[in-house]
């Protein structure tokens, strides 16, 4: 049985299943690593689907699409900032608060749900109830 599993693994490797998708023979023989065995079978189904077989499992792998650009086009691209890099056009610091400024956990413009006084602590801020400065094993 172990030899047959080894033959199967060699065959799917030759078929095109990637080495990182293949399980160890002992995973199946000892009935231990089900996840890796299942992953290998899914990878085999995907490879079969990619090669044009009608398989109900897996996904078809993407095909490589080689692109060639003229050298002058490649030089032009060096001076363009791509949109993926983002932009700071129209950016401002409006709405920013200075470092250390109190952060309101309510909308002060609406005037609703305002704290009763400065001592009110929202649950969002946490609590120090039960906190103590007693240390364990105080050196002595």
Automatic annotation (TrEMBL):
Coiled-coil residue windows: none
Keyword annotations: Actin-binding, Calmodulin-binding, Phosphoprotein, Repeat
Origin: domain of life: Eukaryota
Lineage, opening ranks: Eukaryota, Metazoa, Chordata, Craniata, Vertebrata
GO molecular function, one term: calmodulin binding
Main function: Thin filament-associated protein that is implicated in the regulation and modulation of smooth muscle contraction. It is capable of binding to actin, calmodulin and tropomyosin. The interaction of calponin with actin inhibits the actomyosin Mg-ATPase activity.
GO biological process terms on file: actin filament organization; actomyosin structure organization
Residue ranges constituting the Calponin-homology (CH) domain according to the UniProt record: 1-48
Family: Belongs to the calponin family.
This protein's record includes keyword Translocase: no
A GO cellular component annotation in the UniProt record: focal adhesion
One Pfam match: Calponin
Protein name, UniProt field: Calponin-1
PANTHER family: CALPONIN, CALPONIN-1
Keyword Aminoacyl-tRNA synthetase on entry: no
């Amino acid at each position: 049985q172990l030899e047959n599993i080894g033959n199967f693994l060699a065959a799917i490797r030759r078929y095109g299943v990637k080495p990182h998708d293949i399980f160890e023979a002992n995973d199946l023989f000892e009935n231990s690593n089900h996840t890796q065995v299942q992953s290998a079978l899914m990878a085999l189904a995907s490879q079969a689907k990619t090669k044009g077989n009608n398989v109900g499992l897996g996904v078809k792998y993407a095909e490589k699409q080689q692109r060639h650009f003229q050298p002058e086009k490649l030089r032009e691209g060096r001076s363009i900032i791509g949109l993926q890099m983002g932009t700071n056009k129209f950016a401002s610091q409006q709405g920013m608060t200075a470092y250390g400024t109190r952060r309101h956990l309510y909308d002060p413009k609406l005037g609703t749900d305002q704290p009763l006084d400065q001592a009110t602590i929202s649950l969002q801020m946490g609590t120090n109830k039960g906190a103590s400065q007693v240390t364990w094993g105080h050196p002595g």
